[in-house]
Amino acid sequence: MARPTIIIIIPGSWHTAEHAQPTVHALRRNGYIAKADQLASVGLKERRQYFADDVAHLHGLVVDELDAGRDVCFVLHSYAGQSGAETINRVIHEGRLEASAGKGRLVQAVFVAAYAFPAGVALDSRNFLGPENPNFGIDDERHLNTMTDPERVFCLLLKQNAYYQDATPVITSEDWRKAPITVVATKQDITIPPARQEMVWQGFALNWIDAGHVPFISQPDAVADIIIGALS
């Protein structure tokens, strides 16, 4: 008997599991088991280093499903691509690309309007999001990421804080690239412009959709179709 596959969607910074629900529903309408969760760092009340917390949380989500005997398709959006890639490193180092008795395996990773820097390259939000991107700003006193018009940038209103990371969180190896990977790129993205998406995902085939940075809401059926195709 084939093992069931669960699709786990993780939106990026500022976003909650609620923002992924249109795509979750689109997948369920097509007969797939799907759920959304969110980064541990979403909604922090004070600034601290949180990369390890995000990785630990995502790793727990994946491993719980694998240990329950379900295969996992891991869908990562925006900044979740960074902590998600490190999560995949852990899963691979634990031998979870192959199934074992009574346990599932990681069958697919889907990166949606996402980024994941090379191993050892530190992420500093001040450099990645600004100053050349006028939609974002950094409040150095409070260490908050801010944006001038979130409704225009993300096509939704956001209520969660996002604290920038100093140049410390890094992906520890390139092993995550050994996983089966699908990349969804967004043509109308002003958060991670198309040229920057192409730069980040050199060497991967890009599945372009005509959407902004949060296609879970604006193009849920298109995102679902790509995920389903990756699992076929």
From TrEMBL:
Superkingdom classification of source: Eukaryota
Boundaries of every AB hydrolase-1 domain copy: 7-225
Name of the protein: AB hydrolase-1 domain-containing protein
Species of the source: Recurvomyces mirabilis
